[in-house]
UniProtKB/TrEMBL annotation:
Coiled coil: none annotated. The chain crosses the membrane at residues 6-28, 40-59, 65-84. Pfam families: PhaG_MnhG_YufB. It comes from the Bacteria. Keywords: Membrane, Transmembrane, Transmembrane helix. It comes from Rhizobium rhizophilum. This is Potassium:proton antiporter.
Amino acid sequence: MLAILSILFKLSGVAFLCIAALGVIKLPDPFQRMHAATKAGTLGAGLVIIGSVIAHGALDATLMGMMTVIFLLLTVPVAGHLLGRAAYVSGARLTLTGDDALAGVLTRADKSLDKRSGWVSLAPKEQADTARDTSDRQPPTLRKRLKQQNELPMLPAIEAVRFAVIGGEVVHVAERACTIAQRTGASLSAYTIIDTHAIHAAADQAGLRRLIRERASDAISDLKSVTSQADAASTLHYDEGDPEHILRCETEPGRTLLVLPSHGWFHHQVEARLERTTWEPDGLLRLPGCHRGPVLFVADKPLPDTARTVVVRDCGEDHLAALVEWALLNKLWNATQLLHVADKELKESRLAEVADRFGCSYTRHPAPDSGCTIPSGIDGLRAVVLGRTPRPLRTRWYGSSWLNRIAPDMAGDVLIMER
């Protein structure tokens, strides 16, 4: 009889927990989701605990179970109240109709957090509202061109700038990301990641994790010095896992720019190869494939103001002209010359029209080969725009930097967007 009663309590608790999970997923605003998580969740957890106490029957199990239930009843309502207060103060949307009883009692933000940070809601109606808001924020010339027919497809204006915080490669990347965010009015996010694949491949995993965390901490200190001098507010994200998964972006291409160094990885340059192996962490060139949009690899050294030539390596990608126009529209570089490097059999593209619209001189040059190579010795090289990532996807290949596959002694930025 006690076994049946225990099972009934446990099944009832699991049912309430499932209802709580469904409410957290389906309910439209954080206040309703909070009720589902606190009320149904607490009831479900309490019933499961009571069922477990009945099944064990021992005195110590009974005392532990009752203390756990009392702890839930004392803490979950307080946590729910604090979460609801924080959601209200941050400007979370109220979907239920009626008067706002807290109006004038608590200070409330004018816009919700997702609108301030540029996130798009999953609700169809809210997606439409967000799309209208971002359309209003786009430059007039961009909105005008979007309405025209038979025109080159346009990428939207930048709304978010994300950049990697990698040990030894912080200052020039953070400065460039801050400059772009301030110039475009986009939100700014910094990502400090520890690649767990590098840790799992090491012989002393605990020791390597400690060393990498120390290097990551030093990188964050360098970041704070840059952002304080630039007077830029950025959101810092710290995580341990797969960088390709963490940095994956599914927004509309163009809305989010990912800024990366030209070298380095998220093991923060801690040497930890396994014995008798040549493997080392290296995934920088795989990130353009998982980030849906433009990826800017920043030059290691500052370039002179006279470097104002942007080279477009055209391998037949149909989105290159839109990418170049997007970069010039968002003023990634102060360019005065556009050099179009393409194979002879490729037809004329719209790059000449893009160059003319932004007041840049346009020159077409035959490509040295079928890869991503550009002619060497270009005067005033500022950046190279590519429609695909140079292969192989290794930053160093037989001791040579991946930038040398573009041009010998390549020193400018590289902007890449995969199809």
